[in-house]
Amino acid sequence: MTVSVREATAADVEAIRAVAEDAWYAALGGALDPAEIAGALETYYDPEVVTAGIESDAIAFYVASVDGAVCGFTSAERTWADEVELHTIYVHPDRWGEGIGSALLDRAETWARGEGVDRVACGVLAGNAVGIGFLEAVGFERGRATEAEIVGTTYEEYEYEYNLRAEAEA
User: Over the stretch 109-165, which tens digit does the pLDDT of each residue have?
Assistant: First the structure.
């Protein structure tokens, strides 16, 4: 199996939405009500919203594919002088454990290093055991607990950070 990671294009919007849907239900099905997941997907993965993210000069947006089929995606944005925020990183549940998330993260981190930042940060819902397990396995450190709103409902979220500078100094 060969994983290919490339910049996302408008032609990828439907595939990105399909991966998001399956990943959200698989990773968050026990933490969020199905109606909340449906509402979040409708809001956050509206075709116009996804297209705007892909076309934004401020957002790095990549897709991963195996045998030409999109099976994951990630997006990141420089939010502070010394920080890139990882907005999304999702892999289709049928492909979990195959290194696709790591390939996507590597590409996002390469982009972040090119931006000259010290760290990559992201937030993960406390009920997302899959996301938490992935980030901790690849070296992100959990910070403080905060709150995140998902279509009108507040949930506990953890802040995670990966220190790019420490990696470079090691």
Answer: 999 999 999 999 999 999 999 999 999 999 999 999 999 999 999 999 999 999 998
Average pLDDT, integer, range 87-98: 97
Domains of the chain: 3-169 (3.40.630.30)
DSSP class of residue 116 equals T
pTM of full prediction above 0.90? yes
Helix (H) or strand (E) holding 110: helix 100-114
From 161, 71, 139, select the one nearest 62 (Cα to Cα).
Answer: 71
DSSP characters over 54-103: HH-SSEEEEEEEETTEEEEEEEEEEEETTEEEEEEEEE-GGGTTSSHHHH
Give Cα 130 to chain centroid, integer Å: 12
Residue 16 has φ and ψ, to the nearest 5°, of: -60, -45
First to last CA, the chain: 31
Write out pLDDT tens, residues 11-44.
999 999 999 999 999 999 989 999 999 999 999 9
